[in-house]
Here is the input.
Amino acid sequence: MQMSLGKRADYAVRAVLDMTKHWQGGTRRKSRLIAQDMDIPAKYLPQVLAALVKAGLVESETGPEGGYRLTSAPERLTLLEVIEAVEGPLESSECVLRGGPCHWDDSCAIHESWSGAQDAMRQRLQETTFGHLLRVDEGLESRRR
Here is the structure.
């Protein structure tokens, strides 16, 4: 089993982390700078940013002083919100064993365990804020120096 972020979620998390790094002072970030600093394909980033704007997590402004910035403090923005803004809900209605819809009245043998694991992952992503991720990232950066 492979658990990883899709490309859209990967790029969205990187972009939001970049905006988190520049949160102080309300600095707007140009998409080309986000792409450059976070190693995101410049042609793909506007699609990801548009999804974040649509979800209300990021705001954009055009013009020479324009760019993108978070709509709320990094301490209030969660990893789950960003991932779901670009990937959709994390829950699956597909049965793990049969590949068909899983119904409570006719659930498979691993339904309860699998649902519990999904709930735990959602909870952990909901508890993880970008303020926390910034502190972790800064700690990792300081060790590389």
